[in-house]
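re: that chain from earlier
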Amino acid sequence: MVWEKSGSSYIISEDEEIYTSIMYSTGNFNQSNSDTRAPFNWKWLSQQGRVSPWGLGLYKITNSKVSGKYFYLDTRDNNFVESGINPDVWFYYDSDEGKYRCVVKCNNYIENGSLVRVSDILGFTSKTDKLESFWSNALVLVNNGNNRPKLIWGKYPTSNVILYQIYRDDSGNGIFTLIATVSNTTFTYTDNSVVMGEPGQVINYKVKAFGKEFTNTVSTTVIPYKRGIDSETEINYTLSQNYPNPFNPATIISFSIPENSFVSLKIYDVLGNEVSELVNEIKEKGNYNVSFDASNLSSGIYFYTLKANSYSTTKKMLLAK
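^ sequence. v structure.
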């Protein structure tokens, strides 16, 4: 999905030229020689000459002379367009290093398959509030280069959120389960517990800005009998520090169990009184995230205790209203 400017807002573009545009260059990269560059510019600027149209979108950047080398460029941000600052950024492929490199407004190499956000390069706080229906079109699923599904989304448009939650539907029947939680400055997640392939079982993903609505749903297929935890990833009994912490009024508690276990996860106040029971059932081997809403509790220190088989541990958290 690509957005183009329309007055003071940005509408989803139906301009085929934006989606099919390509610019070839010749020779080796030279900043001062336009014949060696492939320039693109915003569609609404009506640039003349050898400039291809561009919109606010998520792009896969490749080089026709180099096989298998690419990165993703996220320009879905109305902040740097409205800032009055020239947002030009330049990239080239360094054949000696075998990597792309950012060379204007930045000076760094780019790991293959990674995500580059123009707002990060320019030092701007990402804004998507003027992009039409952004959140319902924000989520994209790509191959991370190792046949693992990589999810890419963007900043929730209208307000700050404390975290993003990743949900997966394992059976393709619309029943989603929370599988991971990331910070409010993280916009990617790679699911290393499944292997993409055809033919296979369809699974779906969607992302939720905590306390807000879901993104669109994206799908992929996974190779039969290769679902589940990555064989290279060992699972132990663990209880992670809640995030965020301090929190108000909600937080996420993550834990892992290496075998089927009867699991108890409870919250206690400083006097040892039980104030909430979050889990009290048999769980299969895996990683889990549980949301705790403390809207009805007073500010202060609380403790959460995980018990699973013979394993037991307790951590402290702070509710700050």
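The two ends are 39 Å apart (CA to CA).
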